[in-house]
Specification:
127 residues; alpha/beta; Rossmann fold; 5-stranded parallel sheet; 5 helices; 43% helix
Length: 127
């Protein structure tokens, strides 16, 4: 089965940074998709069904919390693993992330090594 990771952030340099962090997974057959806002992300998630989504919270059109809520609660796509990325690390935001169904909540700046380990784990690739 083809493995896909979707990277969603309205800032191009963050999408690039995450892509670079995970690029070694390309050698293992993982395909990378990107989106710069929540509407595009939702569309890609429904069409491409990525196993893993790195989802920025603060975005135009649809924010990450709303995208996550729709994917998990409306579309019932439990097999899509969502990692919410946010600059806000407050407990309230973390709780909101859990309420909408996020699998993991990471604060920026994130540790690239942790990102890679988590991606390998989710994709079922050995470290």
């Amino acid at each position: 089965m083809e493995q896909k990771i979707l990277i969603v952030d309205d800032e191009a340099h963050i999408r690039m940074l995450i892509g670079q962090t995970l690029e070694e997974l390309e050698d293992e057959g993982v395909e990378f998709l990107t989106a710069e806002n929540g509407e595009i992300a939702l569309d890609i998630i429904q069409k491409e069904k990525p196993q893993l989504v790195f989802l920025d919270v603060m975005m135009p059109k649809l924010n990450g919390m709303e995208v996550c809520r729709r994917v998990k609660q409306e579309l019932k796509m439990e097999n899509v693993f969502i990692i919410l990325l946010t600059a806000k690390g407050q407990e309230l935001d973390r709780q909101k992330g859990q309420e909408v169904g996020a699998d993991v909540y990471m604060t920026k700046p994130f540790d690239p090594e942790v990102l890679l380990i988590k991606a390998r784990e989710v994709m079922g690739l050995a470290n």
